[in-house]
Amino acid sequence: MLLLRAGRWALLLTALSVFSAQAQEACLACHGPDGNSVTPGIPSIAGQPKLFLETQLVLMREEVRPAPQMLPLLKGMKDAEIVRLAEHFSKLPAKSMAAGPGDEALLSKGRDLAGKLRCGICHLSDYSGQKQIPRLADQREDYLLSELFAYRDGKRVGGDTMMSSVLYEVPDADLRALAHFLARARPAAPGGPGS
Questions:
Q1: How confident is the model over 51-83, as pLDDT tens digits?
Q2: Is 148 exposed, middle or buried (0-12, 13-18, 19+ CB in 10 A)?
């Protein structure tokens, strides 16, 4: 009887591994090689905190955070598979998706704004994220900007309401500078603040 149970577990783990590989491939189709997006408007998921990825996948699966392009992949996905995907992508190294070194004036303004808005309190001082808080460093600038606008304008459904209050009435030009800076910020090496 024990061997029969062990065989069932082995079969289940094999099935999960095959499904996990297929799910990972589906993620890479949009989120880019190794989870680093090369597609405008699509976020990089490599190096994001595991709990953040798990939370977002569950919110999308349950349609709390609308994501029509993700729903067909997530509908019916078991929690264990979501955990495996999150673990996989959280361990991949994040690569900078920024185009060029950046504009010095925008970088300075964005750095100042990140300090004034206290972004480092939740996202950590290197903007690598933690627990359910996303990594902002090395994220796509266009994606960061669209999310900042969505939070400020109350259009980000299924997100942290704290972000909406922090960004309330922040001018467009300031959000552009903030996104420009964060896209070029470098997270600490593995084992640093966000690990």
A1: 999 999 999 999 999 999 999 999 999 999 999
A2: buried
Longest CA–CA span in the chain (Å) reads: 70
Domain 2-91, CATH number (from 3.40.30.10, 1.10.760.10, 3.10.20.90, 1.10.390.10): 1.10.760.10
- Could you tell me if 52 and 45 are in contact, meaning their C-beta atoms sit under 8 angstroms apart? no
Q: Which class does domain 104-184 fall in?
A: mainly alpha
d(CA 174, CA 9): 54
Kindly state the average pLDDT of the residues 126-137. 97
DSSP 3-state of 89: helix
For residue 189, the model assigns a pLDDT of 61
Tell me the whole-structure pTM to 2 decimals.
Answer: 0.84
Question: Helix 2-31 to helix 79-91 angle, to the nearest 10 degrees?
Answer: 50
Cβ proximity of 85 and 27 under 8 Å: yes
Do 104-184 and 2-91 have the same topology in CATH? yes
Q: Is the dihedral of CA 26, 27, 33, 39 positive or negative?
A: positive
- Tokens at 162, concatenated: 């704290």
